[in-house]
């Protein structure tokens, strides 16, 4: 699959660990995943059907565990958002066959619309830049306007795929 | 039931064929496989599909679609009065998202025949 990246890199992203206050006044800790997937399993079991995208996350616990094992590999990058110790958001970067990384983000329903998604994606991009990752892409269902707006605000540019999903890409270096 | 299975040039296509054949053996569905290529070679796909059909020991017709697979599948299904079109549910992205392509989109939007996606 070929993705066209913008010519100009975007930089200045914050790096984990960091704590932000969301628009509801909640303290959100953003940290790199340490390999423990248990609290993410709990988070994904609580996920609402309408918040699934393109078949992920899976719905059943064994499938969630299998999927998390596949995306939380050593050459990937995962940042988790926690409130009072519980996982409420997760952003993942998984390498593709072209040396670039696919990004996806999930935020638990009661924590949506409070700026956590933006903070998570920006923090993951900061960690990615630190790791030397230079290109990141994602696909988003084309009717999901809030998500498209969020990615555009961060600096992703649309790069085709006007079918069910829109492809967007960002250059870090 | 008469089922038209659209098989593309991917591993996923072969898997969709296998699960459709398995079901057809139970229900007695009458299968036709229509092969199309989105990236690779249609000849290779056709020989892989014919091999697999032989291994699975099932009786089904094989047709080749050389261009515009979406519209040709819809046309074929209507003209020959199939009851269902089966498509493989697309490839997966590195982090597991289902990727539907323009063939899926065309068939889902334009077919008056029932469409089944195999995931």
Automatic annotation (TrEMBL), chain A:
What segments bear the compositional bias annotation Acidic residues? 1-10
Q: Residues in domain N-acetyltransferase?
A: 28-173
SUPFAM superfamilies the record matches: Acyl-CoA N-acyltransferases (Nat)
UniProt region (Disordered), positions on chain: 1-27
CDD domains in UniProt: NAT_SF
> Is the keyword GTP-binding in the record?
no
The alphabetical list of record keywords is:
Transferase
| Parts of the chain that traverse the membrane | none
**Cited Pfam families:** Acetyltransf_1
A molecular function annotated in GO for this UniProt entry is: acyltransferase activity, transferring groups other than amino-acyl groups
- What is this protein identified as? GNAT family N-acetyltransferase
TrEMBL record, chain B:
Q: Which CDD domains does the record associate with it?
A: USP-like
Please give the name of this protein: Universal stress protein
Species for this entry: Halovenus carboxidivorans
The beginning of the lineage is: Archaea, Methanobacteriati, Methanobacteriota, Stenosarchaea group, Halobacteria
């Amino acid at each position: 699959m070929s993705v066209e990246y913008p010519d100009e890199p975007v930089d200045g992203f914050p790096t984990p660990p960091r704590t932000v206050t969301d628009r509801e006044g909640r303290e959100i800790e953003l940290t790199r995943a340490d390999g423990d997937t248990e609290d993410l399993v709990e988070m994904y079991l609580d996920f609402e059907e309408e918040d699934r995208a393109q078949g992920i996350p899976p719905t059943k616990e064994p499938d969630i565990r299998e999927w998390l094992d596949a995306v939380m590999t050593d050459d990937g990058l995962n940042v988790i958002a926690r409130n009072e110790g519980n996982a409420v958001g997760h952003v993942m970067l998984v390498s593709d066959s072209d040396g670039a990384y696919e990004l996806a983000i999930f935020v638990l329903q009661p924590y949506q619309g409070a700026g956590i998604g933006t903070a998570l994606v920006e923090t993951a991009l900061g960690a990615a830049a630190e790791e030397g990752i230079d290109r990141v892409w994602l696909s988003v269902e084309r009717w999901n306007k809030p998500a498209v707006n969020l990615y555009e605000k961060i600096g992703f540019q649309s790069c085709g795929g006007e079918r069910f999903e829109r492809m967007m890409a960002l250059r870090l270096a | 039931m008469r089922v038209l299975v659209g098989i593309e040039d991917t591993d996923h296509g072969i898997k969709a064929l296998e699960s459709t054949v398995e079901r057809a053996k139970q229900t007695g569905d009458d299968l036709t496989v229509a092969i199309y290529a989105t990236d690779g070679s249609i000849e290779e796909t056709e020989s892989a599909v014919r091999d697999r059909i032989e291994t699975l020991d099932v009786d089904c017709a094989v047709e080749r679609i050389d261009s515009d697979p979406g519209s040709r599948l819809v046309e074929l299904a209507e003209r020959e009065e199939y009851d269902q079109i089966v498509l493989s549910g697309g490839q997966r992205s590195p982090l597991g998202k289902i990727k539907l392509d323009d063939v899926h989109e065309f068939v889902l939007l334009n077919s008056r025949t029932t469409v089944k996606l195999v995931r």
